[in-house]
Amino acid sequence: MSKPFTGTYDDLPTRAATGAFLAIAGLGALYAGGVWIQALISLSVGLIVWEIWKMIDDTRAEAGAVLAVAAAALLPSGGAIGGVMLLFVPVVGALAIDRLKLTFFLYSFVVLIAGYALLHFRLAYGFPTVLWLVLVVMVSDLAGYFVGRAIGGRKFWPRISPKKTWSGTLAGWIGAALVGLGFVLFGGSPLGLIPLSVVLAFAGQLGDIAESALKRRVEVKDSSNLIPGHGGFYDRFDALLGAAFVLFVMSEATGLIGVFL
């Protein structure tokens, strides 16, 4: 059995300061809606597409930048045509990239759909829904970070993400359930929101693991160095994108998510 974490939290002040700034800016844009949320999500998704390109093929940064701009420009477009147009970036990128073509297509496709989903949720269900989703991911991530480091124990998926433990994973699920419970008690949401919160916490953890798998495959530590203490935008938002993507797929496939939201 693995030993509990015995190192230091030297990175915590930088992570906390940067995380607080991103949280305030992000929640402010989500609350304001309109052009603010469109600008924030479009910029973030564009940068993440660039990071994915750069991790896979860092010899032609200008091509990745063009795809990033295209992703940011296409994301605010609504309706069925806009959704189909989102395929432009994954398809063109996969054709143009030198290696791991399918990998670029899948990762950039999920990122774009997740960004589109966040805009859709804000428009269709309002601020409380995206606040709930963000809090589920944030609390799950924080609980997993601190409990996993404090307790340690058996690794969740050591080959892909050696730092994640079962103790941290379970703590993340409990934290997400508590967020759902808070919205049930104080927001009048149905009880079904509690298990849904746990499902999305797991989806967020899988989003984080998926990015870890990509970084391990291309042998990089961070997606970029754009955010102090966090690496890149993909490093910071991988879990939120994973949760948003799964919630969108569930919503589109069943049509029942609106009952809980």
Provide structural commentary.
The protein has helices at 12-32, 34-56, 61-74, 79-85, 88-96, 101-125, 127-151, 166-187, 193-218, 233-254, 257-260; strands at residues 155-157, 161-165. The protein is built from 11 helices and 2 strands. Helix 2 packs antiparallel against helix 3. Residues 1-8 have low confidence and may be disordered. Helices cover 76% and strands 3% of the residues. Strands 1-2 form a two-stranded antiparallel sheet. The protein is mostly helical and 261 residues long. It has one domain. The longest helix is centred in the last third of the chain and has 26 residues, at 193-218.
Briefly, what is this?
The termini are far apart. Helix 2 runs antiparallel to helix 3 (61-74).
Q: Estimate the global geometry from the Cα principal axes.
A: globular
Main β-sheet description: 2 strands, antiparallel
Euclidean distance between termini CA atoms: 41 Å
Q: Label the structural class.
A: mainly alpha
Question: Mean pLDDT across all residues, rounded?
Answer: 86
Oligomer: single chain
Largest beta sheet: what is the strand line-up?
1-2
**What share of residues are in beta strands?**
under 5%
Tell me the number of strands. Answer: 2
| Number of helices, counting only DSSP H or I runs of 4 residues or more | 11
Secondary-structure element pattern, one letter each:
HHHHHHHEEHHHH
Count the domains. Answer: 1
Helical percentage: over 70%
**Radius of gyration, CA atoms, in whole angstroms:** 18 Å
Unreliable spans:
1-8
